[in-house]
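Protein 1 of 2
SEQ + STRUCT:
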Amino acid sequence: MGIILGLIILAVLGFLIYYLLDTKTANDHFISETLCLCIGLITSIGVLACSIQCIVLKTNADLDYQNTLRQYETIEYRLKENKNDTNLLIDDIVKYNNKVCEYKKWKHNFWLNWFYPADIDKLEYIELS
């Protein structure tokens, strides 16, 4: 988001430079047009790259959420099967709980929350009693 905003500011500055150079050198437009074209091209490539990156991040977040749900179901099943031997599952439970904690933290971040599915708040921590 910040990169896109920076690229937009860069484009506005390019148009300002173009305007200033255009008024001072009415005969020679080559420098101002080339500068404006380069800044516009860089800005367009940057916006395209950021847009593609956002789509990839959103898709990966959805897949990670589905994998986390499967991990929760697997751990719950293993807990039911091995009621007396939970020591083997402690590492998996800690990893799962840390992952859920991270997801919930970033889900409530104002700038990054749209990368995460709305169902993240439904994920539960696994607690051993």
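Protein 2 of 2
SEQ + STRUCT:
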Amino acid sequence: MKDLFSLLRKHFAAIEHIKLSLIEIHEFNCQDLFRFMDQGRQGYLTLSVLRSCLEKLQILPNPTALFLLFRRCDVRREGRLDQEALQDMMTPINSIYENYLNMKRPQFPLSAKAVSLPDEVRTLLKRLFEESLRQETKIEKVRRKIQLHDHLDCAHLFSLFNTDTN
């Protein structure tokens, strides 16, 4: 179990690094990303729309991992992601970035028929989603292990998080 937690910490760190790299790109903003993904202009993303967007980025997601990632982002349990949910996923954990992505202006006007993403943004998004999908698979393994151990001591579980594994 400790090895799984150690691996999860590495995934979290990798994801945060990618998010920080994304926000440093002047052309990156969540409004354009959402409009790139929401090609049907529905105002939300479904699981199938997210899958097709990932395929545009040359990511062929494992259906289970994709479902787990979607479920994590769909905090309202509506079966869809709005722009706010996508922005939450893209924002680094550090609170100083909480509104940073919101302040960045879209590069494309609302009337634009198509939104394109710079290659650097596409590359980072691909890395972010691939890492997020791997992370969700690992989190599910931890969740299942915890369910199997009714006698698991939570104090011990939290001590695994606090142990420095570097």
